Amino acid sequence: MPDASPAPRRPVLSVCIYCGSSDAVDQRYKDEAFALGKILGSNGLRLVYGGGGVGLMGESARGAHEAGGKVLGIMPQFLMSRERLYDDVETVVVQSMHERKMMMFEESDAFVVLPGGVGTLEEVIELLSWRRLDLHKKPIIFLNSGGFWEPFFKLVEATIDTNFTPKSFLNTYKSVDTVEEILGAINDLSTHDEDIDTRKVL
Q1: Is the pLDDT of residue 4 over 60?
Q2: What is the Cα gyration radius of the chain?
Q3: Could you report the per-residue pLDDT of 24-63, keeping only the tens digit for each?
Q4: Residue 39 Cα distances to 22, 45, 79, 163, 179, angstroms
Q5: Which of 11, 25, 115, 188 is the most buried (most CB within 10 A)?
């Protein structure tokens, strides 16, 4: 868990991507991951990701690498055979999932959540929980491709409707529909006050 006294916001130089590692998904999701990696690399932003060479993880790393960008992969030892390292980029091998998640957090200035499974959900829930506890103020952007994250947003809104979460929590992340909107959304959350509802980019 981050220190209880978070540092002030710093310039966004590294962007962490949370996403699925399955290859058995619609090609659309893989194409979007590749395009995002390419955008980050082309704009001089380092990609931080889970280190795998398969699924959306591998596509995002390939996109950034082919665009000439810096990439940092972080892979736990026990997953090396399952998620397969992408050998063309820098990868740090750690001992546990806890180390992986903490290092990804510490090495990143902003976070983009692409479609994924329960592992992606675990990562983003922890990230949002830390944000709820005011342990960080780093931008969090969801790529809501084809409405993928709508059920999750409805669950968050249900916790607000039942007074388990304050409505102001909706100001702490944004949802966009296309890869091309992501950098603008990161910049918006990096530079604007949180006194307006910014969950959805208009």
Answers
A1: no
A2: 16
A3: 999 999 999 999 999 999 999 999 999 988 999 999 999 9
A4: 22, 9, 27, 39, 9
A5: 115
Confidence of residue 80 (pLDDT cuts 50, 70, 90): confident
CA 22 to CA 162: how far, in whole Å? 35
Torsions phi, psi for 45 (to 5 deg): -100, 130
Name 158's Cβ contacts closer than 8 Å, sequence gap at least 6: none
User: At residue 9, does pLDDT exceed 80?
Assistant: no
State the DSSP string of the chain: ---SSPPPP----EEEEE----SSS-HHHHHHHHHHHHHHHHTTPEEEE--BSSHHHHHHHHHHHHTT--EEEEEEGGGHHHH-B-TTSEEEEESSHHHHHHHHHHT-SEEEE-S--HHHHHHHHHHHHHHHTTS----EEEE-GGGTTHHHHHHHHHHHHTTSS-GGGGGG-EEESSGGGHHHHHHHHHHS-SSS--SB--
